[in-house]
């Protein structure tokens, strides 16, 4: 506490906070250039004020020396040969030595990239600490008087990722509440904060400077594959860090939702193409629009169109197959179908789930919902996988009792946060994970809730019509060649749309 001012009579108040030399982030305090404003007057007249001013200047100088330690250290290393040479009467040799170091630093690619990366990380640390200090000085942050220390900086296509540690007395929740204010100070697109699940004091902060998903995703890695296995992970797109995102379908069900034109069919085609190129998979297609899945009809073991009664017949036979498989598993004392068990996987693809839940007789709609719920709830261990897609992600279209049974949920662009939550689950929009803020020009961009604890923002691979036709023709030849197990005939419901 400072002593009361003899001149102003102000009450004592806290002195400015320390600026974090003990920060584990390495570069200590921020880039701020504050000169000690707010330091109270002390008894003793002008000499005390002069001493306070000198102290403030010294602190400002020390702060900036510490903040720019990397650059100053690099300059010292480069200048060292020249200084030593001049001191020993060899100025030319010393100058050549400094020039050689500079040439190596700028001329050797790996060294130049390393120096640029390290400098960028140092600049990011300074900008971060300056933003944190600005909010603290404005008394708008719970960490006022402390330092949100940067432990590591990682460069990403979208911007930078900081591993930070909040000061004692603050929480990661406080930091998350200040995310928008930090983005304003940093003048960037967005700040995202995610708490470390194992340490309440640590968090990962993403400084989003640009939209990495604005550009189309790279070509699907399996475009030219002759044969695939549905047991293997399926590449479906790239995330905001440019890393591939994969789905593993066995023992999982997938719900896709998004408004028309969001890229739902393109995302669905990746999963169907993988199943079609696995001759051991039994493929069942329910196409409420008749044309979306028509290209894969030649690979399917059973199909149903717009007639809800036909769809119910197909699902009823699948349920009978599921019950028979459970009896087989029980007889063999097995808990679930495995790759070496000898039973093929069944993939059930439903495009436009809303058609079957909203059209037809009420009794037929109710039966469809019950059959779907049973297959999604019990079919996983029996090797039956359900993928359902809809362009009407509304709570009155997809009952929550059915939605919550889907282990994987993929929300492409939605018209409202509520529609996004209908696919992903209630509450995600309020946490900042909503598909309603996706640019309409960015088809294929969505949020995927799968193995991780939080939805992953990604852009799916895209297969154009000629590529889809080529893959479908290749899959039909593969299945006709008898490369896999032949259909067992236990699923015989067919509506000839092929």
Structural description of this entry:
This protein has 498 residues and is of the alpha/beta class. The protein has a domain at 234-480: Rossmann fold (3-Layer(aba) Sandwich), CATH 3.40.50. Helix content is 38%, strand content 17%. The protein contains 13 helices and 14 strands. It has helices at residues 46-67, 69-87, 91-107, 109-137, 172-177, 179-186, 264-276, 308-331, 353-358, 362-378, 400-403, 417-424, 465-480, and strands spanning 149-156, 159-165, 190-196, 199-208, 234-239, 244-247, 254-257, 282-287, 302-304, 346-351, 384-390, 408-412, 445-449, 456-460. The strands form 2 sheets. It has a 10-stranded mixed beta sheet with strand order 6-5-14-13-12-7-11-10-8-9. Strands 1-2-4-3 form a 4-stranded antiparallel beta sheet. α2 (69-87) runs antiparallel to α3 (91-107), α3 packs across α4 and α4 crosses α6. The longest helix is centred in the first third of the chain and has 29 residues, at 109-137. It starts with 45 loop residues before the first helix and ends in an 18-residue tail after the last helix. The model is unreliable at 1-45 and 486-498 (pLDDT under 50).
- CATH class of the domain at 234-480 reads Alpha Beta
CATH topology of the domain at 234-480: Rossmann fold
Low-confidence stretches: 1-45, 486-498
Count of β-strands: 14
**Main sheet overview:** 10 strands, mixed
Structural class: alpha/beta
User: Which percent bin holds the helix content?
Assistant: 25-40%
Provide the residue-averaged pLDDT. 81
Beta-strand content: 15-25%
What is the gyration radius calculated from CA atoms? Answer: 31 Å
The CATH superfamily of the domain at 234-480 bears the name: P-loop containing nucleotide triphosphate hydrolases
Strand/helix succession: HHHHEEHHEEEEEHEEHEHHEHEHEEH
CATH architecture of the domain at 234-480: 3-Layer(aba) Sandwich
Strand order of the largest sheet: 6-5-14-13-12-7-11-10-8-9
Through-space gap between termini:
83 Å
**Overall outline:** elongated
- Total helical elements: 13
